[in-house]
Please model this.
Amino acid sequence: MRGFWGRITVAAVCLLLVMPLVAVRAQVGDDKGIEHSDRVRPYGWGYCFQRSLFFGGIIITGGRCYNFYLVHTAGGVFLGFGPQGQLLVPPGEVVRLGTPAGHKLKGKLFYLIPMAGYVAPIPVESIQFLQVQAGLRGNRIVVLVPKRNGRPHEVSFQER
Model:
């Protein structure tokens, strides 16, 4: 019996050591580029979406252009859709939401999409402009949010 449990223990330890490597390989191998089309086109700093986008119960109006912002609140980290044109926050700057200027900024965002699992590089209760990549991957619209190190965080939307 002792030999049987010893083999099981060795197999379990080997499995635990190999699984993270397999997961990392799957993530890297799955990193196919996104396609650009006339349905998603860059405009200045932002992106224009021809059709409406759906994320869970949130409907994002199509036929408009948006700039993107990282919003970190006590409730979590969000991808903010802001108006096209002049940026609400200059690139590289972080604005505190608790200040009068920051309070006005949050009110100018059209949509806040939750980004579960994303570790924000900015402090809680702050906002920062994001330079993202957006395009098609299969039949979904994908927005790639940069991280400090590693692979970008993907936020994908259904299109209708």
